[in-house]
Each structure stands twice: as C-alpha cells, then as structure tokens.
Specification:
Chain A: Pfam families: PadR (PF03551). The complex is a heterodimer of chains A (120) and B (448). Chain A is an alpha+beta fold. In chain A, 55% of the residues lie in helices and 13% in strands. Chain B is built from 18 helices and no strands. The chains are: A alpha+beta (120), B mainly alpha (448).
Chain lengths: 120, 448
Amino acid sequence: MHIDKDLVAASATPIVLGILAEGDLYGYAILKRVSELSGGGLQWTDGMLYPLLHRLERLGHVSSSWGTSEAGRRRKHYAITPSGRATLAERQEQWTVVADALRQVWQSGQRPPLTAEGWA
Amino acid sequence: MEQHLALDADIDRWRGYLQRHQAISSADIDELEDHLREQVTDLQATGLDDTEAFLVAIKRLGNLDAVSREFAREHSDRLWKQLSLVPQESRESGGTPARELTVVLALAVAAGLAVRAGITWLDDAALARNLALLVVPFVAAYFAWKRRLGIRTVAALVLPAVVLAVLLNVYPFDSDSSTEPLAAMHAVVALWLLVGIAYVGGRWRSDGRRMDFARFTGELAIYFTLLAIGGGVLTGLTVAVLQLVGIDPEQALGSWVLPFAVPGALVVAAWLVEAKQNVVENIAPVLTRVFTPLTIIMLLTLLGALATAGGLGEVDRELLILMDAILVLVVGLLLYSISARDPLAPPGLFDTLQLVLLLAALAVDAVLLTAMLTRIAEFGASPNKLAALGLNLLLLVHLAWAARLSVGFLRGRSAFAPLERWQTRYLPVYGIWAAVVVVVFPPAFAFA
C-alpha cells in the first residue's frame, strides 16, 4: 500500500519520538522498528530519517551520543529528552483527536466506495 | 573475502560521492555508512550477495541529491564555510591560535606606531618615499613568524629591504625630482616580492608556492577592501555623530585613527587570508568570471577611444600612466583567474574569454608602445617615459607569451600547466625591473 507523502511526513515526528520513548536507538534500528510497527506498510526513504533526527536534536527533543557498533563502527545513538516527551504527549493528544474524528466519520457516514467503476 | 573487498570499495566510492555534498558533514557520512552497512548485512542474511545487497541498500537510502537537499535545509549554515579563526579543537591543545592572534594584533599596532612615528618625524616627501617601508615589513614579519623562517632566509629578506631603505633615503633627490616618486613606487613592488619570499617560506623556486602567493595577493586585496569599506562606514557614522554633538574629530582622524587603522587593516587582512584560505577560494572564480568580460569591454572601449582620438603622439602623459595602470590590473586579473582555475579542467568558454582579454590587452599595449616611442622620438627620453616604456615591454612579453600558450591550450595542443608556469616564472622579472628603477634610475638621471 502506498501512503501519501504528506501523511508520512506528518506522522514521522510522533512515530520517531514514540519509538525513542521506548528506549534509546540508532538510525537503522529506528527504521526497522517503524517497519515492524506498521507491518511493512510505512516505508520511508531511509536517508530522510537522518535530517529529521538532526532537526529533532536541534529543537532539543532528542539528544545524541556516539558509540560503537558490535562490528566496531562509529554509531550515533539517539535518546528522547524531557522536551521530546512533552512534544510526544502533545502530538498524541492531537492524533487522538484526529483519529477519533476519522473513526466517527467512517462509522456514521457511508464508507467511501472502494472502487470507482465507470469513473475513468 | 574478495567480494567483501569489492563491497568496501563500493562503499568508499559512495562516501567519496557524499563528501562532495557540502551540506553533509563527515560525521553524517559515518552515520549513513553505519546505516548502509547494517542494511547490507540484513539483506545478505536474506540471501542476497554483496553487490545485490549494496544496490538495494543504496536504493532504500533514497536519491542522494534529495537527501542532501534535506540535510541542507536542516543545516543551511554548512553551505557557508564557517570562518572559525580560533578552531575549537586546537584551543584545548597548545593554544597556538590565541598566540597567533596576539602576534597579529601586536604587529598591526607596531605597523601603526611606525606610520605614526613617520608622520611625526619625517617631512612629507620623506614620508611618501618611506610609507611602504613602514608598513610592509610587518606583513613580512608575520609570515616570517608563521613559517618559522630560518635565519638565512630572514637575512636574505632583511638585506635587500635595508638596501632599498638606505638608497631611498641617501640618494640626494632634487626638490622637484621625477625619479623620486618613481623610485618610491617601484620600491613598493620590490618590497611586495620580498613579502612573497616570506610568504612562500623561502621556497621561492616552487611554481606552486609562487601561485599561492599570487592567489594570496588577490585575496588580500579583496579582504583589505572589505575591511576598508566596513571601517569607512563605521568611521563615517562616528564622525557624523561626533559632529552633531559639537566635537570636530577631523584632527584626531587624520593624525591618529587612519595611521593606525590602515596599516593595521593590511596586517589583519593578511592574517585573515592565511587563517581561512578556502572561504575566498569560493569567491575567487566567481569574481574573475564577473570581471573578465567587464574588463574586455573596458579595454575595447579604450581602444575605440584611442583610435578616434587621433594623433597618438599628442596623447597625454597622464593618460599613458593611467593606461599602464590598467594593463597592470589586467595582468593581476589574469594571474588571479589562473590561480583560481582548476588546472585539470578541460578548456571551456571562460578560457576563450580569457584569450580575448589577453588579445585586447595586447592591442592596448601595442597602441601605448607606439605612442610612447613616438613621444620619446619627439621629445627625448625622460625617467618617467623610460620607466613606463620598460614596464610596457615587460607587460607585452608577459601578455604575448601568455596568449600564445593560451591558444595552444584552447586548441588542445598543450595542457594548462605551462600557462600557469609561465605566470609564476615571469613574476621575478617585475621585481628585478622594480629594483632597477629604484637603484639605477636616480643616479642615471642625476636625481632629476
């Protein structure tokens, strides 16, 4: 399934912060977790994660530290900060409102037709 | 095992490609490489071989230009090379940059004091004669300190400078002498080449180092101009405010502020160029590309004007001197643009433009030479005319040979290196000529 670019962009920050709230991780592991959580449905362009992480770091939502991997390579680990947790809580509320609204729409209204035969 | 080597080579190439993106720092590249290798390992576990895994991992990482743009958006500051004069790493260890700053500031103040002393104790003519001698040695001293010159090189620098200083002040110039300003002007050139020897750390035979000095001179001119503009604005605002509150700062400005500010700015500019060569390196090619076409237009305009002005014999003496100055400027531009050019790049449009510039300058030089020879034949030789004639001949040889080499380069018959080498090999000739004008001209013309 292809998920709209804007939706991916909008959800990226809360997802990354949420994953980091579970524990410190490095970039590749974050992406693996994203893929796990979405059952492979949410595919990011891997390279784009890093500018996002750097932005979150600049905003003070995450902190980073260099360590070494099992193979002895330099590896950058990210951890969520208190400010990141606050942002995450805020985003959670926002997304809950959105999700609630969507669910009610899906339930009360007619479901949109899945196929649009004869429209093309 | 061999396959893994191929993978390492692939990753190295990929790193090299990333490094060309200024927005991605080397730490970011390490981070991305860790990601890439992790991905490759996981893909290999699913049965892909090295090459397949590498290709898939690269593909997942996304279009590098797009990723780089995203990095640039986050780190826009990195696109501006940052001028860190006191780098943080070395501040902890050793503390040399701070000491360098102290040395530079001390030299700047010393240059100011020297000029100030000159203003106090020398009459106007002597001051004009010695001004360069009061300032330039401090720039040379900075490089002598910076390059840790040996005692022999220092002696080789001090000796000619002392000879110049003594001659300039011992020669009994007439009160309305024309050899005096000539000697003073040419002493500046000779002194500047001595600075060059200090700059190249005594390795004056090296073509590469000579080119560095040409580059340094151009960049120094840019930095000095920037400092002068900034200083001018600051001084102008201060003067305006002081005048409004009823203090007239003109006296203090002329006798204290400027004598310290101008020589100080020169020393500081030299240090700035040295401290961060590559900041201006980015702008040098741009400047030469802007000014080469403009200079061509200027030269063609001048040629047109000279052609329509009629008899060349009547051309004003001052005009000839001005035109000489313009030609010197062209040679400066040529040197600077050659020093800013990537010697391995194939000939392009800009090289053609440079050849056009050379040809236009040659045409102007030919017109000038004709005018000068006509004047000399008509009114006889004078120190001014001979000095101008000599300079013109030097410029003619310089430009003509450069044009020849440049044609060869454009036609693909030779590389760029000979053209570059010609510039640097020819530089000392100007120094020798300058020395001749300082040392030989005054006695030869009886100090008239």
